[in-house]
């Protein structure tokens, strides 16, 4: 009963944070990027929580349960990716005023690339959000002994209440709480207790095969695929770009992302060790995705179990809310606003779009049954189709619109084809898809001429080629002055 009360109090706290965020969200910029006012602690907390979702927590423990410490490679790839965003992209995004991945594409390659990339980005953010909703259902099912669909709906409804109310301000306030809950629940409570229950590291080594303690136990092909998916793919993740722009300055954005990457790498190691210890104390789980919840229920006393379950909820909810607002921002900024002009610049329009995106994510979550699988399929298509054109748009002045469209089509077509041939969760789709995109993009860029209006310009110098205003309702290329820290 105490554990259930802790979970309920946590959910109520999230709704309360939504109310506080609503009072701060007076403009579209407040709603989409928290007014670009976050200082180092709030920014780093928010950036970390968007990384450490269900795939990193529930899925990370699941991989540790199956493969040992090498199961951390998924989260490690995400951690390196989030640090790379700060190092490589912070300056260009801040100087250009770009809010979304499709906007970055359209600056150099024009309106057709905006629409194509919007479809892919929305699909990716939706599917990863679906993975988080599945993770929420897994946790609440264990705690309350209710059907998974009911559990997922409860978590989804909580996310919608605080996200729709205050947008990025509410999400950031909840992220700070969730960051502290996850840190305490995983590092200070679950990790030491489950390792102790397993008899310590020496007993774990004696009990389990040697591959559980090999850094490559999960397989080199899987390590390579995860790196391609979650390192490269994460650098063009809309949720990450949007979080980057919540920072009050370029310096905060860059260094906060690096610190976040270090924290997330440690979190990944902790999750893998929890799963490895869990393989000793619960060796015959039918579904490895249940490892986090089942291990917690076995080794934790009343009260602490509720805290650790709240940490799992925090992981899923923070990532889900960030991704869903990312999808709604792309739809509003890059699809609907070009059609509706300034009429879609209001907070009300952002709220309606966010709620609609959330409804779609809930519906899809009822048809998908694997947290890591949902994320993998979405990340395959994102990385294969968009990584090469986006990097080309930002770093290669010779790149052309024809090459971008050809690269997107080649990467996505090859990726989908190998999903059909090798299976949805195979490693080959992203590898061959990215190779095809790179070959086509480079070949066509060298064979065609850039648009004279943008040829020779650095990314941050490019005009808003589609004539669309950004999420704040001001010209997207216009610099936004720094605001006071929050």
Task: Give an overview of the whole structure.
Pfam families: SSF. It is found in: Membrane. GO terms for molecular function: transmembrane transporter activity. Keywords: Membrane, Transmembrane, Transmembrane helix, Transport. InterPro entries: Na/Glc_symporter_sf, Na/solute_symporter, Sodium:Solute_Symporter. The protein is mainly alpha-helical and 486 residues long. It has a single domain, classed as Sodium/glucose cotransporter. Helix content is 76%, strand content 0%. The protein has 18 helices and no strands. It is globular and about 65 Å long. The two termini are 37 Å apart. The C terminus is likely disordered.
Summarize the structure.
The protein has 486 residues and is mainly alpha-helical. The chain has helices spanning 2-24, 28-33, 40-51, 54-67, 73-96, 101-109, 111-144, 148-197, 200-207, 220-235, 238-244, 250-281, 291-299, 304-340, 347-365, 371-395, 401-422, 428-447. The protein has a single domain (2-370), classed as Sodium/glucose cotransporter (Up-down Bundle).
Helix-strand layout with pairing:
Blueprint: H1 2-24, H2 28-33, H3 40-51, H4 54-67, H5 73-96, H6 101-109, H7 111-144, H8 148-197, H9 200-207, H10 220-235, H11 238-244, H12 250-281, H13 291-299, H14 304-340, H15 347-365, H16 371-395, H17 401-422, H18 428-447
